[in-house]
From TrEMBL:
ABC transmembrane type-1 domain boundaries: 71-258
Keywords, sorted A to Z: Cell membrane, Membrane, Transmembrane, Transmembrane helix, Transport
Major location (coarse): membrane
Name of the molecule in the record: Putative ABC transporter permease protein
Xref: CDD domains: TM_PBP2 (cd06261)
PANTHER family attached to this UniProt entry: ABC TRANSPORTER PERMEASE PROTEIN MG189-RELATED-RELATED, SN-GLYCEROL-3-PHOSPHATE TRANSPORT SYSTEM PERMEASE PROTEIN UGPE
BP terms from Gene Ontology: transmembrane transport
Length: 273
C-alpha cells in the first residue's frame, strides 16, 4: 500500500459522511415506521410495531390528499422551471462564448450580478403584482428560472469553451441560420453538462421552500406542505416523519443513480473551461 495515510483519511471521511447523512435518514425512517405512541418518544430505536405503510397511507390521505396535490404542483414547477433554465442558459452561454466584445461584457456583468446580489423579495413581489403574476404558478416558474440561470450559464459556458468553432462555421457554410446552428449542431453536443444542470436544478427547485412560501402561498407545494403537516401533526411524529420520508426519497434516488453523471458534467466543464 503506497499511501496508507491517504487511505486512513479517506476512511475517516466516509465514516464522518455516514454519521452526518445516514444517521439522520435512519432516524427519519425508524420514526416514520412507529405508531403514534412510540414515535412521540423520539428515540433512536427499532419500532416494536412496524407500521410504515399505514403511516404513509395516512399521510397521503390527510387533508383530502393534500400531499398528492402538492407533489403534482412541485413536479410541474420543477419540470417547467428546469426546462426553461436549460434552454435559456444554453442559448445565453452560446452567445457569451462565441461573441466577444460588448455583448460578452454585458452578459458577464449580468451573470456575476445574479450570483452576487441576493434576491430582493419585496421588489420582486411588486413586479409580479404589476404584471399580474403574483400568487400564480407561471410567476413562480419565472422566479425559479431567474434565480437559477446565472449558475447554469456558467456551467454551459465552461463546457462550450471546448466545443470547436469549426462546427459553427461548417453549418454556416451549409446555409444554416443561428437558431439552426444552436438547436441542431450545438445543443446536442451539450448532453453531458445538460444532465448535470437538470439533476442539480431539479433537486434545488423540488426542495425549494422559500420561493413558494413568498410567491405562491395559496398553492401547496411539497415543501410548504411539510410546514402545514408539522402544525397539524405536531404530536403525531409518525405521520410527520412519514411525510418527510416521502419528500426525501425522490432527490435521494436522483443522486444515487446520477451521481456519476453529475461529477462527469462538472469535471468536463472545469477541464474545458
Amino acid at each position: 500500500m503506497k499511501n496508507p495515510r491517504g487511505v486512513v483519511v479517506g476512511l475517516a471521511g466516509i465514516i464522518i459522511t455516514a454519521v452526518f447523512f445516514l444517521v439522520p435518514f435512519a432516524f427519519i425512517f425508524l420514526t416514520a415506521s412507529k405508531d403514534k405512541a412510540e414515535s412521540a418518544l423520539l428515540q433512536f430505536s427499532w419500532p416494536k410495531n412496524f407500521v410504515l405503510l399505514q403511516n404513509i397511507q395516512q399521510a397521503f390521505a390527510a387533508r383530502d390528499y393534500l400531499m398528492v396535490i402538492a407533489f403534482i404542483n412541485s413536479v410541474v414547477l420543477t419540470v417547467v422551471s428546469v426546462a426553461g433554465m436549460v434552454i435559456f442558459a444554453a442559448m445565453v452561454a452560446f452567445i457569451w462564448q462565441r461573441r466577444a466584445g460588448r455583448v460578452g461584457v454585458a452578459i458577464n456583468a449580468l451573470v456575476l450580478t445574479g450570483l452576487i446580489v441576493p434576491p430582493a423579495i419585496v421588489p420582486t413581489i411588486y413586479v409580479l403584482q404589476q404584471i399580474g403574476l403574483f400568487k400564480t404558478m407561471p410567476g413562480l416558474i419565472l422566479i425559479e428560472i431567474a434565480y437559477g440561470l446565472p449558475f447554469c450559464i456558467l456551467l454551459f459556458r465552461a463546457f462550450l469553451a471546448g466545443v470547436p468553432r469549426e462546427l459553427d462555421e461548417a453549418a454556416t457554410v451549409d446555409g444554416a441560420n443561428s437558431l439552426q446552428i444552436f438547436f441542431q449542431i450545438i445543443f446536442p453536443v451539450l448532453r453531458s453538462v445538460m444532465i448535470t444542470v437538470i439533476i442539480l436544478q431539479s433537486v434545488f427547485v423540488y426542495s425549494d421552500f422559500q420561493n413558494p412560501l413568498y410567491f405562491l402561498p395559496s398553492t401547496p407545494t411539497i415543501q410548504v406542505t411539510v410546514l402545514n403537516f408539522s402544525s397539524q401533526y405536531l404530536t403525531q411524529y409518525n405521520l410527520l416523519f412519514a411525510t418527510i420520508l416521502l419528500i426525501t426519497i425522490p432527490p435521494l434516488i436522483m443522486f444515487i443513480f446520477f451521481n456519476r453523471k453529475i461529477v462527469e458534467g462538472m469535471a468536463a466543464g472545469a477541464v474545458k473551461g
